[in-house]
Specification:
single chain, mainly alpha, 6 helices, 0% strand
Length: 130
């Protein structure tokens, strides 16, 4: 639904924002201001110890679009990469891109398999949507 709303705003303009949720334009404005503020803070605080803790605007926005379990999976991947880079730096440098690509491809293939099961009427073993 979030991607649909974004597509509608891009296709039909900002007037479609309040159709789904009244007063949604306030949230959109707050998000836009926050997205503008983050890179300004990163530039102003360039040579400070705080800068590494200022999040990326893209990553922050993406967190509002994807499901929580996907955010958690990305977090686990980041922690795994951090540990791998400390324990076996050479192996991590050589293989992490291929490993991550394989995990993404595997998740996509599993999504197709899961869709086939769902269309076939098979109930999920661990439902993620409640």
């Amino acid at each position: 639904m979030a991607w649909k709303a974004v597509a509608e705003v891009l296709a039909d303009g900002l007037s479609t924002i309040d159709v789904v949720t009244p007063k949604a334009h306030f949230g959109a404005l707050a998000g836009a201001l926050f997205g503008i503020l983050l890179p300004i803070l990163r530039r102003v605080l360039k040579d400070t110890r705080v800068r590494p803790f200022i999040p990326s605007g893209s990553a922050f926005g993406l967190a509002f679009i994807i499901f929580p379990y996907q955010s958690f999976t990305i977090f686990l991947g980041g922690v795994t990469h951090l540990i791998w880079s400390k324990v076996r730096p050479k192996s991590c440098e050589e293989s992490s891109f291929s490993f991550a690509s394989g995990l993404i491809a595997g998740a996509g293939l599993f999504g197709v398999f899961n869709a086939i099961l769902k269309l076939s009427g098979v109930k999920p073993l661990f439902p993620l949507d409640g």
